[in-house]
Amino acid sequence: MRHLLDTTDLTLKEIDDMISLSMDIINNGEKYSESCKGKKLATLFFEPSTRTRLSFEAAMLELGGSVLGFSEANSSSAAKGETVGDTVRIVSGYADIIAMRHPLEGAAKVASAKALVPVINAGDGGHAHPTQTLTDLLTVFREKGRLDNMTVGVCGDLKFGRTVHSLIKAMSRYKNVRFVLISPKELSVPDYIITDVLEPSGCEYKAVTSIEEVMGELDILYMTRIQRERFYSQEEYLKYKDAFILNGEKLVNAKKDLTIMHPLPRVNEIAYDVDDDPRAKYFEQAHNGKYIRMALILTLLKWIDEEADHTENMLTVNGIQCSNPHCISNHESLPHISKHTGTNGTFRCIYCETRTK
Ligand code: CP
After folding, report:
1. Is the pLDDT of residue 59 over 60?
2. pLDDT tens track for 176-222
3. FRET pair for 299, CA 20 to 30 Å: which of 18, 117, 312, 346?
4. Which residues pair with residue 317 across a beta bridge?
5. Probe ligand 1: pick from 44, 132, 262, max atoms within 8 Å of CB?
């Protein structure tokens, strides 16, 4: 049985196959209308969502299956102190596949260790959001006809923005993709994205603090919201909340075939006048989420009897407490385990990838 915790759980061929399947679903939807008859999807959302939860539910319904679940932690027994592991173990008896969102980083990994059915990470704190990335890849493919040979600008809160982490992990595996990381210095990508993802991939990348200076270079502009809920204080959030606001004026030097994306929700980082620009594709992007999630559900259910590839086989050490206050290992009774990442003797928490040693 296989789970989807991050895009690195999939080979490039598997991602490409899923995109092809989504394209077939888009063009021949009726062919799939009974593909999941008798199957149930549980959506366990311990954190708010519009797109991810509803597109997962719409996806399963369009495949002829049914859905059950909850949309906030308070309406589940988590409010009484039940652990993630116990919750998914119970729900494994009620559903054939689980999509789970949780505010703690590494929650999906913990769930996958206890569940008896496939677990899909629908966002774990500021760590990863692989189904958003699959949505993004389908959008880029539909807009550009390719996933390689392009310059991708990611802009906003690159520290806490989980969609950006998963997107860089995935797109850095395609040929000749160059990244421009646009953020205030304090909100730059976590160090593992540089040392364990971008540098080993050989991708060209640069970090800048202004969007105007790089606009003309970009094929994709991926805007993100400043993630208020991940900041340690309201005061700190207020310092950055207006850091980048994309408007028509800032697009003057942009390429004619630029694709403007955003995982949404937006707060104020894209002015409403940009919505009418034909290069704005964020609403189409959100709609693509349903098709790729249909493809993902079909694929994971098809793989249910397949052994997961445990090639991780990495050197681990026990007992070093993770310093990340948002890591699940600091909230539930779990062993503190770090894995060797192969970069200069670095060890990282197996749940959230924070450097521990
Ligand atoms: N993009 C995204 O994850 O949106 P929701 O939080 O509405 O699911």
Report:
1. yes
2. 999 999 999 999 999 999 999 999 999 999 999 999 999 999 999 99
3. 312
4. 338
5. 132
